[in-house]
Design a protein that fits this description.
single chain, mainly alpha, 19 helices
Amino acid sequence: MIESWAPDDARQLHTIARNVTTRYLAIATEMALGLLMLPFNLRHLGAEAYGLWALTASVTIHFSVLDMGFSGALVKFMAQYRAHRDTRALNEIASTLFYLFAAVGVIAYAVAVALAFNLDHIFKITPAQAQTGQWILIIIGLNVALNFPFSVFGGVISGFQRYDANNLVAIVSSIMVAAANVAVLDAGYGLIPLVLATTAVRIVTYFVYRLNAYRIYPPLAIRTSLFRRDRLREVAGFSVYTSVIDWANKLNYQLDGVVIGVFLGSAPVAVWAVADRIISGTQRLTNQLNGVLFPVVVDSDTTRRTERLQKVLLEGTRLSLAMVVPIAVALILLADPLVRAWVGPKMIASAPVIQILAVAVALRVGNATGTTILKGAGKVRYLAIVNIITGLVNLALSAILITPLGLNGVALGTLMPIAVSTIFVLFPAACARVGLSVASAIRHAVWPAMWPAAVVAGGLAVVRRFSIGGTLLAVLMEAALAAAVYLALFFMIAVGRRDRAQYAAKVMELIGRRGRLAPAA
């Protein structure tokens, strides 16, 4: 008899569709709430207080590097030993990492407390802001510390390909956090009670993840007696390079707020946060496909199926670009009216930052399949080295350009190294790994996704000359129309007949499977 938690290859397409669909729903919920809550919080707190909150929270983001890549490795080994139906190995790895992360959480909280009492020595803030920031960091630090051990339960769920369970919890948590946010500020309370209330909701969510892990994998056992050093060494063999990649990503995409706080203070951080909310949401919304492709790459590399790897690179790159390019084009052309309608003219300095970072996110997402190929097909060390160099150059350029160019200099410091590493290093390396020429990859994957964008950009630029809509709804409708035209050009003309037929067949297969499952349910 096959256990209910064992893998079922016959439902692989359904599993992928369910996971991706709920993930997009979670991201859409978070983005929608973010669009509503950011101007709400700015009105109630003011730019200085909101910037202080964003600045202090940005410090804790970098604590995630303390997991040393073990979180990503946990998902890999959960999936691997689940395939072998090895209950003991699953519980040993889960227990080992739980107690390791518990120790890391204690260290992280100690560091957070130490930083809390030295904020005025790190950032350009007033003594009053430093005192408020102390309490914020102490409260948020507790959430960070608990996140380490409780992340094991989320990793177990992900390793069992039940991302949908994690996604549904994330949706409810986002709604509850937003509700607590509104309730606290509407009641007239300030920043510290707001942080306390929203953090409490997030901590409660961790126990829901734990409950789901035991429901999805009933034999799960977290015990000190199952801690194994050999399991730690086994997982570390994979995690060491993923930890370097994670640290590099922090340098590339999450350290800018700290640089701004050091050189300019807390108020400009609020301006940057407006742009960052848009760009990070765009990246998350358009980059979900490549997480699903990772196990496919690992399997194809293990079985030496080069032709399949080539197909993954071409189709993954083409579809990734098709998802991110129309959004990037809309952001570049509509950044100014978007900011004015969303958060008001006082934050208009974020518009050029959005335009610059839109190019960066398009490059990153467009090349995400290539980096997935390098990570899953034996080139993780190479990828780690390139990413860390890119991150260090980003940090240096941002620090150099912030004085003469302000926030735009920080954005350019992010864009330039990403552009160089993506276009001239990582994408050619991925093509070489699967035995494709760069010219062939550009012709079959990049060009079909790019020329419709040029057409849409020209049309949108003309429409903007006659546009009279200044509301957020009007701006979003213009962006949605541009995206619809792009997708029509892409699927009806740019994509060849054979690929179009293949995409249609996959959709029909999924619809057919859902139709067969519905009566049974």
